[in-house]
Amino acid sequence: MAGVSGCELRAAGAAGQYVTGDRGDQVADDPQLVDRLLRSDDEYQVMCGAICLGTRIADPTSRSRLRELAVDDRWRVREGVVIGVQEAADADGDAVQSLTRDWAGDPNPLIARAGTAAICEPRLLRTPEAAAVAVEVCRRATAVLGALPVGASRRTPAARVLRQSLGYCWSVAVAADPQPGLAVFDALDTTDPDLAWIVKTNRTKKRMAHLL
């Protein structure tokens, strides 16, 4: 796979194929090529474009476009946003933490989900400070879900996607620094049926089970 950029390789792992081209390792740094990927009719190519765009979250225009892609109807495109933001953390962890905090509190469940899924990656949570950010992101996103009226609003596809994500993200965040993380996790309101499900589901995860 010589000549394929790092962002394309990440896309290959997530989508099972990659975008070929003559720019190779320069794909992520070529705004015109990334724009062509994003305008493609091929879902996988759009996902690749989202991954490449995610590595440029310090740029306000890229951040704004990523936000739009985070609510795309296509799940692979939404996942491309998450992967791209995670890739950006290798070069600019502070920018990723800022973005995920901001997104986690957004009233749109898909934005909140993108922020939560992006930060809740074990390799990004190797310090207590990073783990604290992930716990705060989970708390904010859980509040977004909890603010939705129980009933039809909780059954929308977007709300279900957020609920599912919170069903594992909490365990990742808490396991990164258990003592402070558990204190926040244990304070969740389990009288709310969806929050009760989130707590129950996370408790079944192997990474959490040995902490309880």
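(the above was protein one; protein two follows)
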Amino acid sequence: MSLEASCLIRVFKMNNFMVGKLNNSIENNEKVLKIISMLIDNPGVSLRAVSEKTGLSYSYVRRKTSSLFSKHIVSPGLMISSNIIGKEIAVIKINGNVPDDVLDNLLKCNRVLIAFRSNHGEVQIVLIGKEKQEIMEFIDALKTVINEVKEIMIEYGVLHEKTMIPLKNSHIKCNIPEECKDCLSSRITRYHGKMIHQY
């Protein structure tokens, strides 16, 4: 199954590089995959070293690397320990009408490891929090921007203490739900009568 078929949006954490949606032309291009592998193995590697180790010309490596970054297929990322952001993890399955803009904006939240729409149309989210209550408050806030929630299933777990989480914005210690900035929707959302998000 291709990356495109497996989920709408999928991000892999590898070292401190994040590799986003790959289209079939890149998946099947061994030269580009060599470049990506070198960047994952050594994020600080020079283009000249990539050229020498892969046997590809310097101009090809420079052109392809520039294209990978400009198309947001590969991007450098800062990681933070789960000791700081939280070790409680929840896999949330939502059966309901989740707008695409909500799904897209979930991926901007530091607490969301991944969010995607399955082949059956349900949305699945892997969410991190300091405790289960915080996760429940996030879900309550999320429900305010989802049309027609039919069912929500949640499975909890605990992250390993050495897990590193990719940061997507500067709100490292957000206070859920009062300080939700860019995690839910581009609409104005109200939670317990308070405005929690607007952009």
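Reviewer note on protein two: Residues 1-16, 185-199 have pLDDT under 50 and may be disordered.
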